[in-house]
Recover the amino acids of this structure.
């Protein structure tokens, strides 16, 4: 009986988030105001976010306290398990040691509640009544729905239309958690109406849904604010609870990862796991290979350019320096809806420019093949987004088999695929395109 | 920060199952052969089950060893968490302490793998190549699918037609785990063809699907055996790992349940949690109120008679003394497919006759109402089956509020509802009937 799960007690939930900005060898370029193109100030963000989240967005403190009320909620599922994928290792016949951080145990089934909970909390503290947001696959929307429910806020979700159609049960989950859900593009906003005028059959995109949610908040007269599920500094910071726990859990396992892997859409899942390890490295500790995995149909880091661009389609958000495919890029309707974003977190983009991480693009059928192998050995069906990390982890493990090296591989199983079974059914039916 | 989850380490996974037969104040009546109506012998069961499972079915040993290979698999998710439902308690404003055993963390999302894994293991050891089985909601079928995958067996699942149609994603899950799935009644067996001849639109039932699976095994010439997901003594015994863990976890919580609650379809979920506590009581230890909760549309324990009846519709199985609505009873198509069974485990039936447990029937809309309350406070959407236990737990907690008593309530959250969102969508749309 060899140990499989490396668990921490609730008393070991980290009490601070890690802010990688404090350790970056080159500071981030400032966000620019979409009108003036001057660096934005905290005041510029007030229509969108409460003061505390704005302060976190600009913070250069290395560690930021997690409020007790947030930890109280985290306790429902955190610390999440770090699992040694022993059956998978055996099936691959690899000398590698494969670990995964299982964020699928959260209420929404992914890592997203890690930031939804504090975002709802800080908004409630600031007297906000309503939160608007966008969602792709629905992971973020269901997370914010529950967070709003917990803190007594109304939640309005603009869901990318292709996901809204493909995933009625994700929608059902958001409604069970108490949110109202609208397909984007919608008739409720100017941005939505413009998109529908241009293409009545638009499948939507995360960028466009962001435009709609931002517009709804800005025009609320202050009762509503907006919440973003990835990309921004404060979001990545909230997600570092994954990596901070994993650092402790790798100690329990008496191991340390040679390679850390995560799927990257906006970058918060990858960053949440990898940044605390990269922080160790940047402060002179052990080094790791950090691999961000993206879909080859939306290759932001591997094929995008590093420049200032809008976060949304309509050009309402600040301009950020990041890897981007262009804010009007509409990715194909792949099943990994959460990875269909034209841009990338400025932090992850900067780390890529500094050669502190590797980026890799993979096609979706290869990802589902890896997802099925994982499910048949570890008993967990990965979310389509997470299969990207599984693919890379398996490839690295197979490279170890080839070379005879016994490396330690850690990846983020960012979510389960219980609401994505149609994707697997399509995969088995040979209907998926790369 | 008050403790929410009571976790055990993998080293604390119980190494034996508990066999309540050893402690029953009155022995079970023997099963009878369907042809001769004489007590059956172990040899009579050989066409269906491997020798080791037959031995367990007849065993009167109080503790039965769990094989190491089974514990190795259990480690992927066991021990499952015992959770204090603190937010729910607060929302109900009750002085009661509510705990739930979360079996939704398993690979199939329910308690069913607790017995699927050992059943597949013992069949593999006996040289069996194929397992046939039935499934209602799909929880059992997906559990056995994975178990067969792990031990290298082919898995053939007969799925009750109404569930097959309502739950394509459960079917997808079984196929992802490597099984083949057929809607029952089917054209593949005599029992299925007879049912279709009588009613081409039959929604099917667990009893009928059992007939089909049993027939397919019996006619295989020995290469296939049959696996049952509930009712039988050995199945309830495998499930006692839940209650054995819960006994240890209640100690961690420095508490002991006054009331233990579980949903009862065939009885293995309820029994798995309650029997170890009832065993303590029967051996002179602390007493508990054990409440088995069933749907009012399939009221086996509350309205059925205690007599010899067949386990299946076609009358191929042994006759067992149990609470039954009659083996030709076809329950309405409620969403809690796993509770649509005409009979009840002989062990649970006997305990009911001895007044060692209470039975309660609840209508489905009241169950979904409770399920939504639970989801909005604890972040977990319960399976429709599990909402029956949630309903009873909430009712007991509300009774405590009324009386001012601070009781300790423990219930089995037997599974999550990720594959049952249509039921919640129908509930919100006012489409459910009681």
């Amino acid at each position: 009986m060899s140990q499989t799960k490396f668990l921490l007690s609730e008393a070991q939930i980290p009490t601070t988030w890690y802010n990688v900005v404090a350790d970056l060898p080159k500071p981030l370029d400032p966000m620019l105001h979409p009108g003036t193109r001057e660096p934005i100030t905290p005041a510029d963000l007030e229509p969108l976010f409460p003061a505390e989240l704005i302060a976190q967005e600009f913070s250069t403190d290395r560690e930021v306290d997690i409020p007790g009320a947030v930890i109280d909620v985290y306790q429902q599922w955190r610390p999440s398990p770090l699992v040694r994928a022993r059956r998978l290792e055996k099936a691959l016949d690899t000398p590698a040691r494969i670990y995964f951080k299982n964020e699928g145990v959260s209420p929404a089934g992914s890592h997203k509640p890690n930031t939804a909970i504090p975002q709802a909390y800080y908004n409630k503290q600031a007297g906000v009544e309503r939160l608007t947001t966008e969602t792709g696959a629905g992971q973020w929307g269901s997370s914010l729905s529950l967070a709003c429910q917990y803190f007594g806020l109304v939640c309005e979700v603009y869901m990318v239309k292709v996901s809204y159609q493909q995933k009625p049960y994700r929608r059902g989950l958001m409604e069970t958690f108490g949110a109202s859900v609208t397909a984007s593009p919608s008739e409720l906003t100017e941005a939505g109406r413009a998109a529908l005028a241009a293409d009545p059959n638009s499948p939507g995109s995360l960028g466009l849904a962001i435009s709609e949610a931002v517009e709804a908040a800005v025009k609320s007269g202050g009762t509503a604010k907006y919440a973003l599920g990835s990309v921004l500094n404060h979001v990545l910071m909230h997600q570092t609870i994954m990596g901070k726990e994993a650092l402790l859990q790798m100690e329990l396992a008496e191991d340390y990862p040679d390679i850390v892997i995560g799927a990257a859409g906006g970058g918060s899942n990858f960053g949440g796991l990898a940044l605390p390890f990269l922080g160790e490295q940047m402060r002179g500790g052990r080094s790791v290979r950090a691999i961000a995995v993206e879909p080859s149909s939306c290759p932001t880091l591997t094929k995008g350019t590093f420049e200032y661009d809008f976060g949304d389609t309509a050009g309402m958000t600040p301009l950020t320096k990041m890897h981007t495919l262009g804010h009007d890029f509409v990715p194909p309707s792949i099943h990994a809806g959460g990875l269909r974003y034209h841009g990338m977190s400025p932090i992850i983009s900067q780390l890529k420019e500094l050669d502190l991480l590797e980026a890799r693009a993979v096609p979706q059928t290869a990802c589902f093949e890896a997802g099925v192998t994982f499910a048949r050995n570890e008993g967990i069906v990965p979310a389509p987004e997470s299969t990207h990390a599984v693919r890379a982890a398996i490839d690295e493990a197979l490279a170890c088999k080839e070379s005879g090296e016994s490396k330690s591989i850690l990846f983020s199983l960012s979510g389960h695929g219980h609401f994505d079974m149609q994707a697997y059914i399509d995969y088995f039916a040979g209907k998926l395109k790369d």
Summary: The CA atoms of residues 162 and 333 of chain A lie 7 Å apart. Chain A has a mean pLDDT of 95. The longest strand of chain A covers residues 154-160. Chain A touches chain B through 48 residues (CB under 8 Å).
